[in-house]
Write a structure and sequence with these properties.
This protein is globular. It starts with 8 loop residues before the first helix and ends in a 16-residue tail after the last strand. The protein folds into two domains: 41 residues; 363 residues, Rossmann fold. The protein is 33% helix and 13% strand. The longest helix has 25 residues. It has a ten-stranded mixed sheet with strand order 4-1-2-5-3-6-7-8-9-12, sandwiched between helices. Strands 10-11 form a two-stranded antiparallel sheet. Bound molecules: 2-acetamido-2-deoxy-beta-D-glucopyranose (NAG) (3 copies). The site of one 2-acetamido-2-deoxy-beta-D-glucopyranose (NAG) has 5 residues, from α1.
Length: 427
């Protein structure tokens, strides 16, 4: 539970430069995403896909709509075909597969799912035809030292329920919405298995945000469908959503999850041991089922996860007088009382991962940054200036753990101790 900090002049100089970079990138990001961050039904990882300055043509990977999904009736919310982007492995990575599940929050009502069905998070009609593979998906060894030559797949998220909705829950009236996330997951898995994944020696299921939650939900399924002798593990990035009340004391996220689970019939897709004992929507919180997962799991999560702070802890509905407005956009603007609340959020995370932490096979990288979904962005995943704990990048940490080079259970000290942080600034 420690992180080395040094206050050498050099580091402060670096930090100053980095602040400038953060501020300018933050401004750029804000243009694309401001509207997306305003309520619980939105989420976004806009940084990577839309920032032209870090995209080279070789990173662009074409979309493929799934044939297997067509055969099986596994559709996006609007009835369109789901899809994925596939970059073939080579050399020592040709029998290794890394699957990334895209994130983007959830929809919890007919109205919000209908609205979503006319966006790229609910319909392949709006998918980008190609996306940039960065961070853990990158083919550049300097950016992605351990997995650059693996087969890498990004599965697009278009069902609104972490790849776990069920057709039984579909509404049988004129409302044409498809709740088939579980079928999408199974169909695309089948398709990848037939493309060579059934012969794999190594496998990682990962995902960010709502996709990071999906990676936990489907972790054992993934393990069970790869060869018995393959080394298979799961890495959840920003997917550890906490069951905590908001600053008003209202169970905002809990009610939201209850609605998602009920609307899309998730109870059959969630951990069955948990569902047998608890109200099913509780089982959508990783703290309730992460210890039941048989496959080794690694958690990458910011202790001051900005998405959770903006949507779970201080949703707009709990900040009517706007006293949190500045702090929600930039952690450096939080006053002492607000910081006390944010440290409390971090403590809840520490409590929630307590039992998981004791598991020998598990790994973690819990940084004290104002961040979320850190594996697809080079400035967070792996670069000379990216987020570090004990001088290790997220890429090095995940690699050390996956290949059993050494155990990795890194937990940062509370904010603002870490000088190697990539803090988001939305102002
Ligand atoms: C990273 O830090 C180095 C050393 O301070 C600096 O020269 C470089 O410009 C920085 N790179 C980025 C992308 O900020
Ligand atoms: C269909 O049923 C759902 C749930 O009962 C309801 O919310 C929706 O308004 C109905 N749609 C139409 C077009 O009747
Ligand atoms: C941190 O790690 C880098 C290599 O990744 C190394 O060059 C550097 O010396 C390390 N710094 C400290 C303070 O250990």
């Amino acid at each position: 539970m420690a992180i080395s900090t040094s206050s050498s002049l050099l580091r402060y100089r670096k930090l100053a430069k980095r602040d400038w970079l953060v501020a300018s990138l933050g401004l750029l990001l804000t243009v694309f995403s401001l509207s997306l961050f305003l309520d619980l039904t939105s989420d976004s990882v806009p940084f990577v896909d839309h920032n032209p300055t870090i995209t080279s043509p070789s990173d662009l990977v074409k979309l493929k709509l799934s044939n297997k999904a067509k055969e099986r009736g596994a559709f996006c919310l609007d009835g369109s075909l789901p899809g994925y982007h596939f970059s073939k492995g080579s050399g020592s990575g040709s029998k290794s597969w890394l699957i990334h599940l895209e994130g983007g929050s959830w929809c919890d009502t007919i109205a919000s799912c209908s609205a979503r069905a006319i966006t790229r998070l609910g319909s392949s009609n709006y998918f980008e035809r190609e996306v940039s593979f960065q961070g853990v998906l990158s083919s550049d060894p300097s950016q992605n030292p351990d997995f650059f030559n693996w087969n890498r797949v990004k599965i697009r998220y278009c069902d609104g329920a972490s790849f776990s909705g069920r057709p039984e829950a579909e509404v049988k009236n004129e409302t044409r919405l498809f709740f088939r996330g579980q079928l999408i997951w199974e169909a695309i898995m089948d398709e990848l298995l037939s493309m060579g994944m059934s012969d794999s020696k190594q496998g990682i299921l990962t995902g960010s945000s709502a996709g990071g939650l999906a990676a936990l939900i489907h972790c054992d399924y993934f393990r069970d469908h790869l060869p018995k002798d393959a080394s298979v593990k799961c890495v959840s990035d920003g997917g550890f959503f906490l069951n905590v009340p908001d600053v008003f004391g209202k169970p905002t996220v809990r009610s939201f999850y209850r609605d998602v689970v009920k609307l899309q019939g998730l109870d059959k897709s969630l951990d069955q041991k948990c569902v047998a004992r608890k109200e099913p929507s509780k089982c959508m919180f990783p703290q309730e089922f992460v210890s039941n997962i048989r496959t080794p799991v690694f958690l990458v999560n910011a202790a001051y996860d900005y998405w959770q702070i903006q949507h779970v802890l201080v949703p707009a509905s709990a900040d009517l007088d706007k006293s949190w407005a500045k702090c929600r956009l930039n952690i450096k603007e939080c006053d002492a009382e607000q910081m006390r609340v944010l440290h409390g959020f971090r403590s809840s995370l520490m409590d929630a991962i307590g039992k998981f932490h004791q598991n020998k096979a598990s790994g973690m990288f819990i940084d004290s940054c104002y961040s979320h979904s850190q594996m697809l962005k080079p400035v967070m995943w792996h670069s000379p200036n990216s987020t570090r704990i004990q001088n290790k990048t997220i890429a090095e940490s995940v690699g050390d753990w996956y290949f059993n080079r050494k155990p990795v259970k890194l937990i940062d000290r509370p904010y603002p101790c870490n000088l190697y942080c990539y803090n988001m600034n939305f102002t």
